[in-house]
Amino acid sequence: MIPPTVIVGLHGVLQRNPWFDRVVEQDEEGTVEEDVLGFAIDRAGSYGWQSLTSWLHEDGEVTARHEPTSWAHEEVGGDWTQDGRVHQLAWLQAGVLTDPPRPGLPVRPISLVLAETLARVGTVTFTGLHALLPLEAAERNTAFHQTELAPWFGLADPDARYEVVVTASCHPEAGGMSERDAAAVRDAVREMAQDAVDVSASAPGGGLPGLDLDLDRVLHTEGMREVMRLSCRTREWSPDIAVWLLEMVAEGLRRAGRLAPVVVTASLASPPA
Asked: Which segments of the chain does DSSP mark as H helices, in order?
């Protein structure tokens, strides 16, 4: 059985460290993103997140096989074009584990190791996050855990304000989003976020300047179209809070009975300065 697919992508502007080219060998095409982002897999292992199948050898014989316990790594990549514009700096595609006990969708750990790898490369101006979420594999109720994080994100400068747009997209055959369902998702996010995030349905239309994302360029998201958009005002902006927003929306969609694969995004409403 082929496991459901999750894809997590971090977007922003990257200024590579001035010493980068001196310590990282360029390949024939001058691209090193895939090789360096492969460090994210090693970084995951350092946290105890097993993501690759491995074999234990003794005297030339295979004595044990260790299967992934967090996610099944498939591909990784990114775009580090040095032109000062927003690009999808890092993305990782993996299979979601479905055997019990289910660890849940690994959006936060994947985002963490990707962000840490990018920080080794240079200075990142983070502008957005997107994730393909196979909600059929997200049967576990996470509302309690999301609510527990509200005081964490509430511990921030009360005068700071970041305008963030959150969207959800799915395939047309999965059905559109009724006003009732959209309102249920919005109310669920408000309930979990408490006072740490102001959530409104009156989000600005048009493009998303914090993302370099074309759903039709990726096989797993080809044909998906936006069905919901929220406006969120937060006290901080980071991959950490972006993941929280994504996970709260995913929980809201699960509560509303929507289990089809969905792409959820969280991005700045305005281009970075």
From this structure: 20-23, 33-37, 39-46, 107-121, 143-148, 150-154, 179-193, 239-255
- In whole angstroms, what is the distance from residue 255 CA to residue 89 CA? 32
State how far Cα 209 lies from the chain centre: 17
* SS3 assignment, position 71: coil
**What is residue 34's three-state secondary structure?**
helix
Phi (first) and psi of residue 95, to 5 degrees: -90, 140
Confidence of residue 50 (pLDDT cuts 50, 70, 90): confident
* Cβ contact 50:69 at 8 Å: yes
Mean pLDDT of all residues belonging to the chain? 90
The encoded tokens of residue 260 equal 């089809």
What does the pLDDT average to over 213-223? 96
pTM above 0.90, yes or no: yes
| First CA to last CA distance, the chain | 46
AA letter at 56: L
* pLDDT computed for residue 27 by the predictor: 65
